Amino acid sequence: MPRRPARAWGSVDRGKHRRAIELRKHYILEAELVVWREGKIGHSDKRVVSCSGGVREPGMCGHSSHENRETSVGNLHGTEASMTEAIGKVSSRTPVVVSPEESDGNIVPEKSVNNETAVSAESMKGRAPTKRNLEQEAASRMQSRNFASSGLNRVRQRAETDKTFRFNNLFHFLKADLLRVSFYELKRNAAPGLDGVTWYEYERNLDARLPMLERELHIGSYRATPAKRVYITKDDGRQRPLGIQAIEDKMVQQACVMIFNEVFETNFSGFSYGSRPGRSQHDALDALHEGIIRRKINWILDCDIEGFFDTLSHEHLLSFIEEGVIDKRMLRLIRKWLRVGWIEDGKRHAGTIGTPQGSVISPLLANIFLNTVMDKWASEWRREQAKGDVIIVRYVDDAVFGFQYESEGRTFLKALSERLNAYGLRLHPAKTRLVEFGRFAASNRSERGNGKPETFDYLGFTHICAVNRRSKFCIRRKTIRKRLRRKLNEVKAVLIRRMHDPLEKVGKWLASVIRGFTNYHAVPGNMKVPREFYTQIGRLWIRVIRRCSQKGRDRWTWERFYRLQRRWLPRPRLVHPYPYVRFDAKYLR
Known about the structure:
Shape: globular
Helix content: 25-40%
Number of helices: 17
């Protein structure tokens, strides 16, 4: 038998000009259906069956509102429909990486040599297909994930082109593939909900549970679990209620967040940074820093909405959601999570107002609500009534406004209070304040004899008016002292409980604590705080080690502990660049 010519781009061929491994993340926009006619082995008749129209899930051909679960063969007519037995992939040494259709039934045998006279050692019979479950989905997990993401991308494209379009068929995206992706987006070590099931325990039966959960969602038998109410201590000593959802509810909520993001993300304002893809707290801090530096800002309005998540109006929230989504099944799912309530001390409380702070979908609902109540209204006020410069930065329910003139700041504060009262919200009277802050704040206050400029706290940092080495105005950001002391007290309490644990285990945990604190607070001009935190953690650790035994003080000298500290505790380093560097890199026009 003559030698076959080498094929280009072979999956295992390691030639000089060929890839060693075929790329797996290929995405095929138009699926091709290759039809092999009987008796024409080696010659193909390719026909492309494409799907066109509005926003639909990949693989859905035609204009039916129901999802098409059949392959493209069912859409052929005439002689093409009679050749379903011969449908398959091309017999090739190069494997098909992404195949949007069902796989072939038999392996096509190779063509024999022309004018063959001797009896072949092997017959020309194709190999039987591998046994498999016929009901199992033929597409791989990566392929299905690509299909789901492509459908959501088309939703985003439609939302971008038509701001007033309202989607009425989004529930069909809630399939097992999207639920699986959503499950692995959750935090592994999060506290369990009311059912007590952790992330790792649920993962053991994930493959068996996903099809059942998908069916429950689509037939309407899905029932949300009430949240478990816990409390955490705030900086001012008050108790903040949190609602911990069950792991299954978190997974479904994360899937809905991924769908809703494609619809509402294009309508959100540019100064909104909370719980949005590709944005973080430090992006909001950079925008605030550069807004004060580059604009004529002399007054800062620090706003705090009192009990925002506890007083959120369900009626207004659903009306704002219906501006972009009118899918009745999606809206019914949102109502379930809002009305399921919580359980505290064995007693169930109905959810008549507010949304649980701590659930996966609550930040997105807050953005949808405040986008209409605050963002669009504030943008319109700045455009029509403001005469000086005005900056706006919002992270979920924490908002900061900057004004050039004091009179405009006070006028805006009064109008904002009336606006929020109309939707059932209220500004905190003690935490909402208008302070003089900016380039000329120090000189103006010194002329009036008022002392140094006031400071304000935002997203964990205290903002201070200062000057650099060249005597130019700059903003110094320091970690809030209350949060630093609270974090050290929490670490101390945990160290005492884990006093008799192995040093290796405790060292790994302390390393993660220091690394997490450094990754957030290690900004330019604030490196003294991470170094202080590192030092205090070391002192707490050696005190606990010496208390483990009666001879611990004699055995654990400082030299020995320094060796242990260098091994396990990472030293703090500068993590974040200067605000103008990151801000210009992301938003430079």
